[in-house]
Automatic annotation (TrEMBL):
It comes from Larkinella humicola. This is Helix-turn-helix transcriptional regulator. SUPFAM superfamilies: Homeodomain-like (SSF46689). It comes from the Bacteria. PROSITE patterns: HTH_ARAC_FAMILY_1, HTH_ARAC_FAMILY_2. The chain crosses the membrane at residues 6-26, 38-57, 63-82, 102-128, 148-165, 185-205, 225-244. Residues 271-375 form the HTH araC/xylS-type domain. One of its GO terms (molecular function) is DNA-binding transcription factor activity. Keywords: DNA-binding, Membrane, Transcription, Transcription regulation, Transmembrane, Transmembrane helix. Gene3D superfamilies: Homeodomain-like. PANTHER family: ARAC-FAMILY TRANSCRIPTIONAL REGULATOR. InterPro entries: Homeodomain-like_sf (IPR009057), HTH_AraC (IPR018060), HTH_AraC-typ_CS (IPR018062). Pfam families: HTH_18.
Amino acid sequence: MTIPPLDLILLLGTAQGFILAALLWFNRKGNRLPNRLLAVLVGLLASASLAVGIPIMNPWIHLFVDFVPLIIIMPLGPLMFFYTRSLLDPDFRLGKRERRHFWLVSIDFGSKLMAWIFLFGLLFGFFEHSDNRKVGSLMDDYDKYADIPRWISVTLYGLLSYRWLARFQKMNSDLTAQQRASVRWLRQFLMVFAAFQTIWFLHLIPYILPQTSNALLDAFGWYPLYIPIAVMIYWLGLGGYFHARHAVWPEPVRKSSPAVLPDELIQETTSGLIKAMETDQLYLDPELTVEKVGRHLRLPVKTVSAVLNQHLGKSFNTFVNEYRVADVKRRLNDAASANLTLTGIAFECGFNSQATFQRTFKQMTGHSPKEYVNRQAV
């Protein structure tokens, strides 16, 4: 059996896609959730590549292609969006609210459902074998126009992903080495999808028009669309795998012997820190750093850090966030803030991201913000 060169490219893309998906799924380096989200995304692209590249050697393979949904596109957009979020926010989880984004996957099963209905209709005498061509034509038309919501979905989620990434960068000016590496990779990741969406759009328009559809398929088939998919499979899977394998982890902090500070300096610094938070309300600054506090108190940064760590027993972030959480709790019980959302109150109290607020609030109170509000209402 001789496989045409273009089909061979698609089959190689399928094989490498499933291999890379498995490597990502079982990869122990990095955060497991984004690795597995990307594994599913690459696996779906590989499955679609298989649907077009598989050689029809016998009736059984033909039935397999007709009855098994290999082209599943609707989840790609949500997977791209949640991969972006989970890579930058280690606390992100897929809850019930996030899973709703995958409900539209039912669109991908429409034509295969027609095939199964026709099969059972034949068995029970509702259809004749002569109806085969009509059903096949109906399935082709369905798949043709189902590409419209598929393209719209991937495009919209791509824009949401880019917007979320841009907002993350804007609200987190002081990024760690790991976060900077993730941002660079995600920009490349989204650019590849943007390029593919452009190729898909140029193929989609003449494909859905009756006067050009048949001529386009006769001349080029699906190759102008699926050869780029094979390239994407390799690039996205390999790039995501190596990004996870070569993640930049924070260097361990070397412990040194604590500096001995005079009691008077400790008392002065402690009083200054409390005044800076309670009276001057420096915690309202979302970009507050220990350097800013040091300048405000006219004290060396090392002194401020030493007093916080050695004498108050708190990190700088914990010290500041305690005042932010206390202010959030106060405003939740204040009628003047009734028109604000939880996120709006959090931002007014100095938090610079919803994820940080949710995580910090639960750590310090034992309840999520919504749970806290519900308990107060009882």
